[in-house]
Predict the 3D structure of the following.
Amino acid sequence: MKKQLKIWHISDSHQFHHLLNIPQEPGLDTVIFTGDGSHNFNPYFNVGEMENFLDWFEKLPFKNKIYVAGNHDTSIEKGLLTKSDFKNRGIIYLENDYTFINGFKIVGSPYTPFFGRQWAFTKSRNKMGGIWSKLLDSNDIDIVAVHGPPKSILDLSDASRKDVEQCGCKALYNHVLRLNPYACLFGHIHNRKWFNNAGVLKLSNYKTQFSNGSVVTDAKFGKVTSHGNLLTINP
């Protein structure tokens, strides 16, 4: 039986997690992190960064903790950290998998389309549809937690070219609109100088809360410019 779920959604701390303000919202018992707790491309340096992040994450004062990897989490893709390492810390790790919290089915995947340098868990855009077709094939999905955004949803960037680009995944957009879950949580595309991506967006005629939980701003690494999003999910 589903009951109300309150979520602190954060993403893309890139080792600045210790600067985040931890919310004290009544009834808040779930934190979901959607990737890039680490930063270094080299997986053998990256694993130390991830362990530093997980030391912090497991001590957060919330009953339920979920982690979905991101393209910077190269140590996880390399297998230097496994699902068991997360479980031993009381953290649920989702990689093309699902879990239930308060009766809500939450699915998670780290995969994103190629964008700039080829990092972890990236695929060509024409292969992304196959991932979502397998993962999002059930109509009972309540929350989609992924690293990258659906196309045209809080996904603006000018990082790889001079023109502004909507760099989210079109196949993900189509699947999420078809499912119309309570929430779609992601990060990956940070705030930039000319526009904000962090925040929550709803489309007319859809119940889905689209949340970009990125906490850093490009070209301003060294501080956080967002402290994540608080979402209330009601059955």
